[in-house]
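Training component of the fellowship. As part of building independent skills, the fellow (R.M.) carried out the full modelling exercise for a liganded target. The chosen ligand was oxa(dethia)-CoA. The inputs are recorded below so that the supervisory panel can assess the work.
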Amino acid sequence: MIRSVVRGIGSYLPAKILTNQDLAAMVDTSDEWIVQRTGIRERRVAAEGEHTSDLATCAAESALEDAGMSPADIDLIVLATATPDNTFPATAVAVQERLGMHHGAAYDLQAVCSGFVFAVSNADAMLRAGQGRRALVIGAETFSRILDWSDRTTCVLFGDGAGAIVLEAQEGKGTIADRGVLSAHLRSDGRHKQKLFVDGGPSSTGTVGHVRMEGREVFKHAVGMISDVITAAFEATGTGPDDIDWFVPHQANQRIIDASARKLGIARNKVVSTVVRHGNTSAASVPLALHEAVRDKRIKTGDLVMLEAMGGGFTWGSALVRW
Ligand code: UT7
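Fellow's submitted model of the complex:
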């Protein structure tokens, strides 16, 4: 049985740090409110002229270096983003060009904050279907470009960044002892599409628009949706919370992360959290957190890692990966 095994990981954060104190000078908010309600203390903001494709290319190069591979080894680029450089072509094509890669296929995938989990699942399916042997899976965002900087209910939450992994098709035994993506469960429910959305677009307004969110409504659904797809992953693989070595959730809010882990019975010391320094980087949040935990040697080869995300749509999903 073909398994999509993680061969390398990388990430990139823009240099500019925006602190809660900086935001308190811009809108009616405080460090205390933001920390208490979200756990966020700072986030990164892309420089003028620094685009999603720039962040994504840096993350991709770092993942390729970690894998000991060159762009020539890659057959597929799947880039999850809700903040593409342009309406079209896909930002993935810009990354492909920057990598000097003229073969294979590159495309974007749009599932907002769930984008990376959706992209991992999509690339895994493509590799298992024989559509190439190696895929670069990237989550990259410049949410700072679509924030309304006068709206305190949203502008304090998000940040910019990118993360990437290299997946390689390898022969596995078909058991959960295999390395690679062991399960993926994706969901969406468009009845919630107005609870977290951007109020512009090429077909509706001809403008880019700004993020709008009913935060309390999103919060209310988040833990249940996250638990739904993680329980599905446990059932599909015959695993449970005690089998998980690391839980790498979407980094939107520390309270959502804590409540999800508690509900699922996942021990606190297995939870990887970077929300305090990254804020919510949407599709980039899971690979950024993953890379941090790999870099500091928490996540090691053979570890069982549960990824999850939830966001606009609503979309939500989980992926169980043996590292
Ligand atoms: O990645 C996709 C998913 N997105 C999320 O997961 C976000 C989910 N939602 C959340 O994380 C939380 O709902 C928020 C962090 C957005 C808000 O926290 P909350 O505890 O749900 O606060 P709230 O929206 O109920 O607002 C409480 C109060 C309100 O004032 P009143 O009506 O009680 O007087 C808000 O106007 O806090 C006020 N408020 C603020 N105060 C200071 C809202 N934003 C701010 C702010 N600074 N930045």
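The panel noted the following from the submitted structure. Residues 29, 33, 37-38, 113, 152-153, 156, 215-216, 218-219, 222, 252-253, 256, 280, 311 surround oxa(dethia)-CoA (CB under 6 Å). The chain has two domains: 2-171, 180-322.
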